[in-house]
């Protein structure tokens, strides 16, 4: 067999095993018996060890040295395999397993500290995580910028310098927009009790409306909604709260964005290194454009209003126009995951700046809480009342996810760019959305973004799709226009 | 690290991976999206290939050569690892993968042939399966008896000669008992419609009654009930039929027998080669004694009668005594999985004799149907009406499971032995069962059998538990006594 074919046969089996490992994660969050956790930890560790050994296998290096790419697809496959091979070989196995052990412990410590609002209890183990991640970053960067190496793990090609410039342009206009909105009168909030099984029924129907294929997926409940898997088995989860049906509906639409992306990758890439989304940022662009630019648009919420009245009867909102405002209410809040479109990115930018300083040793772990609280008050205009509403609110740092937060805002920026181009290409889109028909939009996204999987590097993929260099202006313009209209600014 | 410790660390990771592979099977039968099957096939194959490579790893051979067992447990661990190592190395990887490919195809062909009642459509692929299994058996037996090597795969130490003697003693007394029963008047059958969610609720309650730990397990529905997993994550499935609540109840109790066995293995053996049931036969002894000797006893069915009246109201059976007869009704039937305690083993003996002849080339695949029909009429007194009621009824041969059927009857024989000793040890057992309290029985089984996992070879384990050499007499005595009373023979 030629080196390329041997390499691909090996990679295919590795991808299949990665799917299995991913499904263990799904199982853990949805159906696993509660006392199974210790055994599950060993099962996950065993799968990770198998995957690491396969990715760093010296034979992969030999095949890579010999293999010839006969075309664009083959070249992209080799690029992805080389990326995984280099990464697996740069991080010593001992360090990787120390990170796995410490972050597993840190996650438990974080959960306890958050529940007790006790920052001091979390700091020692966070200290350890940061130290190990700095070490890993140094190994990955091989003399280059450590934080860039971390970013590259989630967003190939991204640099802190580029992102800083983009985020620096976002921040003042978002702070200003937020302040202007909060000075005016808010649309009415949703009130009442909404049957949870009716919410799930509606959520499943909406998932299908957005093109999510139930024959290759399923929708379950989980504490924190997520999507999982690629190809023919892509599952999503959502949650219900009888006082807040929007949580269920928009969590579902968001996860459907991730899930549909994975389902829509070109079938020829199934179980190959190209058979997944291009990056975390591009992934988030899909989940966000489904959720916000489409799902929270005036046209689509008009249709949704009718669906909700069918499901729940009269729920006290007078008409579509008022409902549009209710869906897009902006209000003060501490929590990133509960934030609206306007404030969400301010939460992310705060974390990006703090974690970058942490990794660069410009900020030490013991000063993190003070830095958080100061920055929060500067951007949001009020003080954090307790750590679980501040520095302890997200699991990410305990799991060692440094460089990850940035992809949330990058995804929103990409969604803004894609939305601008999509609107230009589909002048009749609102008429379809008003009928609950998202197909023109999802077809456009499938054609321009989703079907390509990992074929093209993320930034290039978005640039090809949009026809211009990705930048923050379309997102800002969209937000200012939409919320000026709702809030009559 | 000492060779033994290195070997055990390796084995522990292998066991964790085997649990993952097992859970993929559970997922496939319960929650997998229907269009995911092709991808799942590749995922399973990748896991099998990883497991085979680990079990046959030459380092395992080196460690085995060097390792010293410091006690009984260590010696048993080495015995189990050596067994798996020898097996993995005896069967050439090419043959193993040919068997995997052909049996996967054969399973589909069997399902279609059964649906169409078309034996001829199934024979060519069965031919291939038998040829490959003969080849595998030859590799495993290394010059010894081929069928014994197959048996040994499921029941370490069992031989066709021993089983034939045992089964030969069973058959005439079972044929005679069956004929006598069917000449007398049967107890009334169950009639009416039984709400399926009430069945599941009752089934879950009964599972707990039998000591199944829901914190380390779960009960779902599947087309064919099964149990899956070891240690801290042992799941069972059952099924419901609104006309036949006994199907749900006794499938659940049967699978609880398997599941509780796995849950009750000594926690020190978790994720080691000893951390599972000793053999298929011992496993079946637990599921059968839970289901039949306990679950279909006069005392327990008295309690169950009350539970069913609570769940379903008056369902037309006048009293406990009549209900006991209804639960234990014997009637003509073609299908093994629907057979009562008296006839079940006759179905198994038929398959044992036919498959043994097939493997020994005393019977060829093209003559299998005729041989089946002839034997069936001899033992059951009436003719098979169509292949789906005869030679096409079981999936086993299409999957390559030769040597497996025997463990069903061996399990029943072991259950008979264990029941005799348990009754002698627990003279007050019926008083507890009449209150729905199975704890004295399950505690006895846990102490004598379940906690030992794979520590002791199966036959020795049962002999230690019973205090006598396992044989068919206790099962026959029990059946004759029980059914003579019910049918007033």
Automatic annotation (TrEMBL), chains A, B:
Catalysed transformations (reactions):
Release of a C-terminal amino acid with broad specificity, except for -Pro
Query: What CDD domains has UniProt attached to this entry?
Result: M32_Taq
Active site per database record? 255
- What Enzyme Commission number(s) appear in the record? 3.4.17.19
Q: Which domain of life is it from?
A: Bacteria
The cofactor note reads: Binds 1 zinc ion per subunit.
Q: Which molecular function GO terms apply here? A: metal ion binding; metallocarboxypeptidase activity
Instruction: Recite the UniProt keywords alphabetically.
Output: Carboxypeptidase, Hydrolase, Metal-binding, Metalloprotease, Protease, Zinc
Q: Does the keyword Metal-binding apply?
A: yes
The answer to whether the entry has keyword Transferase is: no
Pfam families membership = Peptidase_M32
One Gene Ontology term of the biological-process aspect is: proteolysis
What exactly does this protein do?
Answer: Broad specificity carboxypetidase that releases amino acids sequentially from the C-terminus, including neutral, aromatic, polar and basic residues.
- Which PANTHER family did the record assign? CARBOXYPEPTIDASE 1, METAL-DEPENDENT CARBOXYPEPTIDASE
Q: What is this protein called?
A: Metal-dependent carboxypeptidase
Q: Which organism is it from?
A: Thalassorhabdomicrobium marinisediminis
Q: What is the lineage of its organism?
A: Bacteria, Pseudomonadati, Pseudomonadota, Alphaproteobacteria, Rhodobacterales
